[in-house]
Design a protein that fits this description.
mainly beta; three-stranded antiparallel sheet; 0% helix; elongated
Length: 85
């Protein structure tokens, strides 16, 4: 959803660098995948098309922090809360 962001902290030798991938428009989301030694963070549209991708070597990634925005969906309410009540 718009506003979702992922923060990636990477070891750059003698220092660290911080990168952010943000879902900037309505209907977009940020997805994270880790495979074969590569961390891939992508901004994706509702239809599943990838808008942009950031790739990092997994052994250089120090932190991967996801910052979701609060959802207002009834489907994500805690158990026991009946939205019809």
């Amino acid at each position: 959803m718009k506003g979702d962001r992922v923060e990636i902290v990477v070891d750059a030798g003698d220092t660290t660098r911080t990168y952010e991938v943000v879902a900037g428009r309505a209907g977009r989301r940020v997805e994270t995948a880790i495979s074969r030694g590569v961390v891939e963070v992508s901004e994706v549209t509702r239809s599943g098309s990838v808008v942009r991708t950031a790739r990092f070597m997994a052994n250089r990634v120090l932190a991967l922090v996801e910052h979701p925005i609060p959802r207002e969906d009834a489907s994500e309410s805690p158990l026991g809360d009946d939205p019809r009540a």
